[in-house]
């Protein structure tokens, strides 16, 4: 059973694109449910307008996920009049859906962490306030820090600090990848606009089906052949 993490993003697009993200997220989750895949919405960032989503990250599990995602991943186009700017002339709006490379939690090495002890604050009596049982742990490769004062035992606090540090570093990595993905989306948006993987139209967000005309393909081949024979 495969696990995939997918991000739907408006990039730096306006509120209209964030509205499209919200609609696509809804349809995407409906199709996930219809295919009986397991899913979790890991992150959802609201747009500036009500009912809009700047970006959303979804984790899904199941068999043959690659086949399912092949109909979704890429540029998605909505053709319609702005729902926020009545007289805006633009009719074509684009968002992106991409797979996020999954990040494995780092195997943090003891020599990469420094510990600083301090007196605990808060309830616990004089013993807690006099003994340096609280711990600040710093993971030097990333600079991430955590402070733990859960236990009266300095040793136990160190163990807790390491686990929390692992989670914090993992979350930082995930956020960096998401930011990088938005930047990549912005950079290749102009190239990708010409070949959207899905198209929708109107405020009811109806899907536009791709028309396959074999007759037109045959005619194009004939025209190409005639051009070659001229030379």
From TrEMBL:
Residue ranges, compositional bias (Basic and acidic residues): 221-231
Domain of life the protein comes from: Bacteria
Region entry Disordered, spans: 208-231
Domain Prokaryotic-type class I peptide chain release factors stretches: 104-185
Listed InterPro entries: Pep_chain_release_fac_I, Pep_chain_release_fac_I_sf, PrfH, Prokaryotic/Mito_RF
Entry-linked Pfam families: RF-1
PANTHER family associated with the record: LD18447P, PEPTIDE CHAIN RELEASE FACTOR HOMOLOG-RELATED
Similarity annotation: Belongs to the prokaryotic/mitochondrial release factor family.
Protein name as annotated: Peptide chain release factor H
Organism whose genome encodes this protein: Aquimarina litoralis
Gene transcribed to yield this protein: prfH
């Amino acid at each position: 059973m495969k696990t995939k993490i997918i991000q739907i993003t408006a990039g730096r697009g306006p509120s209209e694109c964030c509205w499209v993200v919200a609609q696509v997220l809804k349809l995407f989750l409906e199709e996930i449910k219809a295919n009986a895949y397991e899913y979790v919405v890991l992150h959802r960032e609201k747009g500036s307008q009500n009912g809009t989503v700047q970006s959303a990250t979804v984790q899904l599990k199941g068999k043959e996920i690659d086949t399912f995602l092949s109909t979704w991943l890429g540029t998605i186009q909505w053709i319609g009049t702005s729902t926020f700017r009545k007289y805006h002339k633009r009719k074509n709006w684009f968002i992106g859906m991409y797979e996020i490379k999954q990040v494995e939690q780092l195997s943090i090495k003891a020599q990469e962490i420094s510990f600083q002890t301090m007196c605990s604050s808060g309830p616990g009596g004089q013993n807690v306030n006099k003994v340096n049982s609280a711990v600040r742990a710093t993971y030097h490769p990333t600079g991430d820090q955590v402070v733990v004062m859960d236990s009266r035992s300095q040793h136990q606090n160190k163990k807790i600090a390491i686990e929390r540090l692992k989670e914090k570093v993992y979350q930082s990595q995930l956020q960096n990848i998401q930011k990088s993905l938005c930047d990549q989306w912005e950079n290749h948006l102009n190239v990708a606009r010409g070949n959207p993987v899905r198209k929708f139209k109107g405020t009811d967000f109806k899907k536009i089906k791709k028309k396959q005309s074999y007759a037109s393909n045959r005619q194009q081949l004939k025209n190409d052949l005639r051009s070659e024979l001229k030379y």
